[in-house]
Amino acid sequence: AQTVTQSQPEMSVQEAETVTLSCTYDTSESDYYLFWYKQPPSRQMILVIRQEAYKQQNATENRFSVNFQKAAKSFSLKISDSQLGDAAMYFCAYRSGETGANSKLTFGKGITLSVRP
Amino acid sequence: NAGVTQTPKFQVLKTGQSMTLQCAQDMNHEYMSWYRQDPGMGLRLIHYSVGAGITDQGEVPNGYNVSRSTTEDFPLRLLSAAPSQTSVYFCASSRGAGGEWETQYFGPGTRLLVL
Description:
The structure holds two protein chains of two kinds. By secondary structure, chain A is mainly beta. Helices cover 0% and strands 52% of the residues of chain A. In chain A, strand 7 (60-61) and strand 8 (64-69) form a beta hairpin. Chain B is globular and about 40 Å long. In chain B, strands 2, 4, 5, 6, 9, 10 and 11 form a seven-stranded mixed beta sheet that branches. In chain B, strands 1-3-8-7 form a four-stranded antiparallel beta sheet, with no helix packed on it. The mean pLDDT of chain B is 92. In chain B, a hairpin with a 3-residue loop joins strand 4 and strand 5 (42-51). In chain B, 0% of the residues lie in helices and 50% in strands. Chain B is mainly β.
């Protein structure tokens, strides 16, 4: 079974600075997808960024980028130029890409990010 | 295009009562799932469906039933509510055909309190 670990329960960053959120995962599969979801106080789950395991290039979405280290099974999220609206809980998630696999997402426990003005 | 919708937003039940949490999507997605979110636990899969007429259990299925009679709807039923089912429930869907379609989209959540 796959597991996702987010070992830091809370982090804080100064507005306009950069912060990195850590995530590690364990799997024996070679084909999979990794995601970061953001959950603001509204509780809506918002997709931030995704990474396909077969792609060596790290995904980037505006101020959000990932550092995907497949051999180390590490998938960290970097937020540049942090804004007050980035304050939220962030979840790392894994999804199998194997043929016949269901659509199940395995989530980490999340990290609460606060942004200081 | 409403995406994934859930009703109700908030519900209070007494122990032993039954209720159905509604979920609907208008994106013609084949895959639909129910998760529950508890403090310090992340989101855990309750049940999922890979298409109309097909459902299966997830990580924490006990106390919940599902059915999928149409592509659009995936209701979650609590037959006899227990305080341990107090949680926030999320419905999600994805096209599920591989590649970019593997991304799941979530509804706004239903907060359930069982007394």
